[in-house]
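Chain X:
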Amino acid sequence: MTSENRPFITCHVLDQTRGKPASSVPVTLQLVEPANTFDATFTAQTDDNGRVSAWTQSITPQDVVYRIQKDGAVPGTEKLKWRIVFETEKYWKGTQTESFYPEVEIKFYTDLAQTHFHVPLLLGPWGFTTYRGS
């Protein structure tokens, strides 16, 4: 996938206990701030490589940023706050693994400049780690 085709926000889930990608994890991405009058919630499921390469919604996260810029919805806004939720309970049940976290929620900021943002999640049944990827 070329950089022109990849979404503004992507993510990747790796199962640390198996050393493999975590597939079929439902993921929800939502714009938190600024609050909008249109629906800025996106859903996806990780693929066999543990990645979300497309969001299932009629508009994309990029479209949301364009609308905010075009409408001047929030003058002076330089950052957008997002929430991404990984619904891990189903994944762990599917691997017959007891876990502590039924879901993992991460809040993060992006800019309005359409820079690509990647949110990797290193997942274990008793803990998790995340960082800003590339």
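Chain Y:
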Amino acid sequence: LGTQARSVFVGGLRLPEITAMTVEKAREFCEALRLEGYKGEIAARIVNEVSARLRFLANVGLDYLTLDRSADSLSGGEAQRIRLASQLGAGLVGVMYVLDEPSIGLHPRDNRRLLSTLCHLRDLGNTVIVVEHDEQAIWAADHVLDMGPGAGIHGGRVVAAGPAATVAQHTESLTGQYLSGRRAIALPRTRTSADGRPALYLYGARGNNLKSIDVEFPLGLMICVTGVSGSGKSTLINDTLYPIAARRLHQVHIEPKPYAEVEGIQWLDKVVDIDQSPIGRTPRSNPATYTGLFAPVRELFSATQEARSRGYMPGRFSFNVKGGRCEACQGEGMIKVEMHFLPDVYVACDLCKGSRYNRETLDVKYKGKNIAEVLEMTVEEARAFFDPVPAIATKLQTLMEVGVSYLKLGQNATTLSGGEAQRLKLSRELSRRDTGATLYILDEPTTGLHFHDIEQLLRVLHRLRDRGNTVVVIEHNLEVIKTADWIIDLGPEGGAGGGRIVAVGTPEMLAADPRSYTGMHLAPVLARHAPKESPAICAQRA
């Protein structure tokens, strides 16, 4: 802002000082603002409008954000909820809203407020369609469409439809089985104890809203870091713990957020951050190339009698090098058409028809399939196809275990969601040898996962733990939290009201702590194990 704009005061504050506030603080400021005379008359309508929009932001769980927060620093879930809040302010009627997993990144406490907001949108006379795996959201819906019964080739049809209670009783619905409690993610029979174990100690963490906290991470456990949205979880783990460990163990030059001291790094030999960033930004990257699966597949094709007779080496079956690839599209399978004043359009290559390879390369077949047909297989189909080849079957089995059996081996990496990219990274780590002294860090790995997929994922994470590794998970999903060995709960609120350790201990210890919002929501889950009903979020439509 220019000098003149920065010279205007409202309620004793300038605009930069107001925009530096969180949504909650700005709302309190507006409600407490008292302007006299003509100033009050001019400002009344404006202040009411601003207060209403701030209230909408708070209702969708964003009261911890500062008003001057850069848009590119927002998560996908936060950006989506800001757009939702703007629609609430518009007051439109007769609109169909489509939301894709709006509960991502929300604590169960904040999720209830979001669902109440969606119900309010419906009550205004709108239609709200939500793609969601969250149990609270499913029970809050007036009508549920359950797709399946499985993923990929095993899905694609409506298994059950109707109110959640009807879906819960449907025998073929996997979702219904979990809703009714006929099937459940079980509690571990025993939890790995923190007693007598070496630990990693982080002292004086004070980045962003952290209040110079001291944190103990018992090693060899599955640890969940919990807390309401904006409580400081990502700052503690992604911005402080991971950079410290990466600098010490791998000499990576990442600057951690401020802290005083760290102890216990000597017990670790590796740290791996399995985040949701893309595995590749070009069509040349895919699940087969990223997981290392493509190399043994190419070697297998080059070992066929046809390939040997032609003198083809493994490189012949790569779409990244000259020789075997289609030169018209240079192995991309697509041709970019530049459009003036419009986004570029990609069309299938006329020469190779999208296969990426030239005709000579496609003549070579293994068990009746050429290399392009293999890349078109899903992970599940490829697992059966390559069952006699251990080097390939083992990697494919790991991909199935992390819940991506429906992905195609050659699927463009740019089409993968953040959750899918994260599970591919997890699969790659599982395929590697570990020494039992690795620190794995995962940020909300259940994003986009059904109850059944979460159950599979937990088996994988517990297996990493059982090898002696430490698994630190930032998570809101109570089904994951209840299976943890140890929980570190931050809060009590988001933004300036957070950044403190509220409670630490086992899930049972947290559930008994009245100070913890996480414990408050965790207690009934531990008590019933398999929830048969959910408390009403908003009034159901007849």
